[in-house]
Amino acid sequence: MCKNMPPLELAIQFHGHVCPGLLFGVRVAEFAQHKLGVDVDKDEELLAVVENDSCAVDAVQSILGCTFGKGNLIFRDYGKQVYTIASRESGRAVRIAQIFGSMDGPEFRRFSQLKSLTCLSPQEENELEELLSVLFELIMSKPVDELFKWQETEMPEVEKATIMPSIECQICGEGVMQSRASTTDRGLVCPTCRLECEVDFNV
Ligand SMILES: [Zn+2]
Ligand SMILES: [Zn+2]
After folding, report:
1. Which ligand lies nearest the alpha carbon of 19?
2. Counted domains in the chain
3. What is the rounded distance in angstroms from the CA atom of residue 12 to the CA atom of residue 29?
4. Is 73 a domain residue?
5. Cα 60 to ligand 1 centroid, rounded to whole Å
6. Which ligand gives the minimal distance to the CA of 56?
């Protein structure tokens, strides 16, 4: 991805499409950058704790560089539009929570309704396009304070990612991170084999 690409473009390229959720994520990521005085993460200077796995998280990954692979994107499966972004360099963190209903409205409801259909007529396709541009304007121009609540908060307690050694699973022969292997009557086994094969843990 091009480093000089504007944040919105970065997010769209990464996510593959434009949608209201992604746009909300763009607002979150840009606000966090502004509040914390940071740019894009290179090597875990930033940390993001996200409380959902919606489209918005892809904006956090692409704009802030907090990614699943680097281990500085922490997913808490709470089903909440809440994002805590932290700078390890300054020790500052900001918690951003969507105001309930701030994305709601007739356009959004109609958009979601059309999105849930499996097959759209050409008219509905057009309507969807138009709704998307209306929502684009709405979400991108809405004052921050109408979109989400935010507050400075404590640094989330998350260790930096560590690389753990792998061992060979005694059933499938594939490598598995040591900390994920279980001791069984067949020796150390990976989670897949532990679930799929009958193994006895009482050894
Ligand atoms: Zn999306
Ligand atoms: Zn195995």
Report:
1. 1
2. 2
3. 13
4. yes
5. 13
6. 1
203 C-alpha to ligand 2 centroid (Å): 18
List, in order, residues 6 or more apart from 125 with CB less than 8 Å away.
Answer: none
What is the per-residue pLDDT across 36-65, written as a single tens digit (0 to 9) for each? Answer: 999 999 999 999 999 999 999 999 999 999
Question: Residue 132 phi/psi, 5° resolution?
Answer: -65, -40
Output the CA–CA distances (angstroms, integers) from residue 138 to 34, 68, 102, 117, in the order listed. Answer: 20, 29, 11, 23
The residue range of the domain holding 177 is 166-196
pLDDT score of 131: 97
Residues lying with their CB under 5 A of ligand 2, a single-atom ion:
169, 171-172, 190, 193
Residue 160 maps to a domain: no
How far is ligand 1, taken at its centre, from the CA of residue 55, in Å?
4
Write the CATH number for 31.
Answer: 3.30.1330.20
Three-class DSSP category at 108: helix
